[in-house]
Design brief:
The protein is mainly alpha-helical. It folds into two domains: about 80 residues, Orthogonal Bundle (Death Domain, Fas); about 100 residues, Death Domain, Fas, CATH 1.10.533. It is built from twelve helices and no strands. The longest helix is centred in the last third of the chain and has 18 residues. The protein is elongated.
């Protein structure tokens, strides 16, 4: 069973008739009037949005913004959890579990220890300025969240090619050797703890 379709089915069951009407109204510029009139459930609406390629397991931004308008933060949380748990990326494109665990450790160290120079680090990881600008706009006053979301975007973009060694190398290339040392020290503790 497709996990994304299962999620959409569950989200559909959580919508009231009034919320479905609101969502249909928000989709008037994306789905034809005749099709919208035939929609009687969230599941049908989501199917049309998938047909139009406006939503997909790796692209839930439209759904999140629609749920924001109807003030359903709980549904936004479920979407974000789906993305965080790696369901948004095809399994063969994800790093293995051990690599993801190590990445989490290094990302925590980076977020705790890299300050205003975070953009230099993200550029070393080859994430585009456009993506960084979008992340900054979404988190205008939270430097740490900007860094964290940029690193998450890098992970999604690289998929199974996202490596801890790339993070360490980027830190060293930016002369953030102390942060790289802390990260390597935490990694060695992680490795000895799992043996």
């Amino acid at each position: 069973m497709d996990p994304f379709r299962a999620l959409l089915n569950s989200l559909s069951a959580s919508l009231s008739d009034m919320e479905l009407r609101d969502l249909k109204f928000l989709c008037q510029d994306k789905i034809g009037k005749r099709k919208l009139e035939s929609v009687h459930s969230g599941r049908e609406l989501f199917s049309f949005l998938m047909e139009q390629q406006l939503i997909a397991s790796h692209n839930v931004d439209l759904l999140k913004s629609m749920f924001e308008v109807i003030k359903r933060k709980d549904l936004i949380s479920r979407l974000e959890q789906f993305v965080e748990e790696g369901e948004a990326v095809p399994p063969d494109e994800q790093p293995d579990m051990n690599e993801r665990r190590l990445q989490k450790v290094v990302i925590e160290v980076i977020c705790e220890n890299v300050g205003r120079d975070w953009k230099m680090l993200i550029r070393k990881l080859d994430l585009s300025d456009v993506k960084m600008d979008r992340i900054i706009a979404a988190n205008p006053r939270d430097l740490r969240e900007q860094l964290f979301q940029s690193l998450r975007e890098w992970q999604k973009w690289k998929g199974k090619d996202a490596k801890v060694t790339d993070l360490i190398k980027a830190l060293r290339d930016c002369n953030m050797n102390l942060v790289a040392d802390i990260a390597e020290q935490k990694l060695s503790h992680q490795n000895t703890a799992t043996i």
